[in-house]
Amino acid sequence: MKTTFKINHKGQILIALTITVPALILIIAAYMTLSLTSFRSVKHDQLQTHAQLAADAGIDYALEQINLDEDWAGSGGEVELHNDGAIKSTYSLTVTTIDEDNKTITATGKGYSPITISTPGSTVKLSVNLRPVRSGTYSVVSGQGGLYMRNNAKITGGDVFVNGEIEMRNSSQIGLSTSPVNLDVAHQNCPVPSDVTYPRLCGSGENGQPIDIDDNAHIYGTVEANNQTDGSGMSDPGLVASSGVTPEPFPPHDRAAQIAAVTAEMTNVEAGCETNNIVKTWPANLRIHYVSGGEDEVDVEKNCKIYVEGDVWLDNTKLEMENQGQLIVAEGVTTPPVIMLDDDHNDFENDSKLVANSLGVGFKVIAYWSAATCSPDCTDVTGVDLYNSRNKETIHIKNSFSGPETLFYSRWGRVKVDNSGSLGALIGQTIELKNNATVTFGTSTGGSTSTTWVLNGYRRVFD
After folding, report:
1. pLDDT tens per residue, range 162-212
2. Which of 17-31, 312-326, 377-391 has the lowest average pLDDT?
3. How far is CA 439 from CA 105, 154, 174, 326, in A?
């Protein structure tokens, strides 16, 4: 007998709904939560973008203002950049001057939505470092005596101006193929032989061409030289102009004012140190004078350290630095101390150093010896006296001496550099580089300049 079972379907739909409806509710709730989260995320991203753009715009504005006024200090509060009724963005700016070569812009961008709220929905803070680019400044300036380079001598890291002529031999080099420089040559070393009209600009065809390159010597950079038509030995791009170079005056220094300001005195024996690891101080506005009967020099050697608090005048005595002796700019000094040298043949050698302080303030070393009868007190030297002074060696740098923030300045005579070293800048009536004098310059020679501030670093700040 066949048995038939009847299945009762009552209640099954209710069971299905009991399971399905909550699941649907959970799915819809999750979707709505996700949608809301996504909306908030998009909203935050949108405000973040507005804040970022506002901070960037603020930096552009600050850079523009600083190049109009170096003392511009900031916006003084929030500046509204954008407001479309739904979203508002603002920026605020502060400028900090660290020293003459460093500024920092702090830009804070904010995004608001709705526009009536006082608390921003997003904030972006940026810090930008600035450095100055000064036109009309050089790391090497030679007078009418010219620039002479021999052996493997090299100039890198700075532009060069020569009022007279250039002679390069062997494998000497100005600039690098990867870092070309600017070289200007005025050809202001006529007439030859010299007379009372010396120095004046040479005419076309007079006294040859101002740049004489031989052997494997080379110039990498932009070259402008009066009366120069031969561009051989130059590249990147090389010779671009044969006229239009105006002679560059040497930067001023008030010798008489430095002498009049003297308030402290030492003999050359008291000022020097020849014993290991001695520490001394030279006070500001110091005159160091020669004691008759002894050597006419101030010796700084044997790891001696002398802290210099201001200007120093070496009257009728030489400066001899060697064997790891150091002159150090004292902490708190904000203007480069001037070491004024009245005698000839001042030597800087054998791992000795001129050291800047923590602010990066180095020295200015200025030598005044010349062939004129008024030396070293001449206010001006011209004509035959200036021509004869071109070979008077007043500053000799050799054997790995280091002075990366120091300007060396021979007002009427010759600066001679042997072997490698790190120097700030060179000025000399004549400059001679020889042997392996691979010199990297890190300062400018000063003088009349125009300054443009440019970006040197950019980073996000998270408070």
Report:
1. 999 999 999 999 988 888 899 999 999 999 999 999 999 999 999 999 999
2. 17-31
3. 33, 6, 10, 20
**Which is nearest to 365 in space by CA: 344, 349, 335, 341?**
341
CA pair distance 27, 115, nearest whole angstrom: 35
pLDDT digits (tens, 9 = 90+) for 25-43: 766 665 565 554 554 555 6
Whole-prediction pTM value? 0.69
Residue recorded with tokens 């494998």: 171
Q: Which two tokens stand for residue 80?
A: 């509204």
| 452, pLDDT greater than 80 | no
Rounded Cα distance between 403 and 422, Å, is 6
